[in-house]
Design brief:
alpha+beta, 27% strand
Length: 240
């Protein structure tokens, strides 16, 4: 990796700022002052110091975000606020991206990372990664709906969903609504909403609780995020 890119990615500013650091002899590589930002280094083995402080390199970043409604799952958008806009500038340096997507009006668990292998494995249909959602449904969800989900509902485009575990948490006869949890194995566009449309019901609120072995931290407020813990990283090892 080029030295100037390495320093920019580790929080030492733009390449222009890095150029000034180099010019003022504040950057050392393996104990020798470096003057040229174009020189290539090995981030994992070369020792880099700026103003006498060792630079710690981090190749990958793993963030758990409690996505709020009104924000889109994208890295950039000219019209709407994205999940990347929720990050501090320091956490954007390694170019994280959302693993999969949650609809604009859906909240809940979203993993942000720059680990392409992990993202691919979590999203690969072959891996059959479970995704658990909680939802409020307009309509009383009954045993027929549970059976239909278990057998695999057919979406409006003819796609037949795999068996999904639908659980009714509560119903309200007065408002004719149900609160449910559902576990699906695919990741089709608007899938949960379309599954309920297939049984003549409508999702009015949707929240993702888990994806594979990763579960949303109950203490993580909406719109906030944090790095994955060591324990969470360990349970993700099968996907890395």
């Amino acid at each position: 990796m080029r030295l100037d890119k390495f320093l920019a990615h580790t929080g030492y500013g733009t390449r222009k700022t890095v150029k000034e650091l180099l010019k003022s002899k504040q950057v050392e590589v393996n104990g020798k002052f470096a003057k040229d930002g174009k020189v290539h280094i090995e981030p994992e083995s070369d020792q880099v110091q700026v103003a006498g402080e060792k630079v710690h390199y981090q190749e990958f970043i793993y963030l758990m975000l409690h996505k709020p409604q009104g924000v889109i799952s994208a890295t950039e958008d000219k019209l709407h606020k994205t999940v990347i806009d929720l990050l501090h500038s320091q956490d954007r340096l390694l170019d994280p991206f959302p693993v999969g997507r949650l609809d604009k009006d859906t909240e809940g668990l979203l993993l942000l990372t720059n680990d392409g292998v992990l993202a691919h494995n979590l999203l690969s249909p072959k891996k059959e990664v479970d995704k658990c959602y909680e939802a409020v449904i307009q309509g009383i969800v009954d045993k027929k709906d549970i059976q239909a989900f278990d057998e695999g509902v057919t979406l409006d485009d003819g796609f037949v969903c795999r068996s999904a575990a639908l659980t009714v948490l509560s119903t309200n006869a007065e408002s004719q609504t149900s609160t449910i949890q559902v576990v699906i194995h695919e990741g089709k566009f608007h899938q949960v909403k379309r599954m309920f449309e297939a049984v003549d019901k409508k999702v009015t609120y949707l929240k993702r609780l888990s994806m594979g072995p990763l579960t949303l931290d109950k203490d993580l407020k909406i719109g906030h995020y944090r790095p994955l813990t060591e324990a969470e990283m360990k349970v993700m090892e099968d996907y890395r």
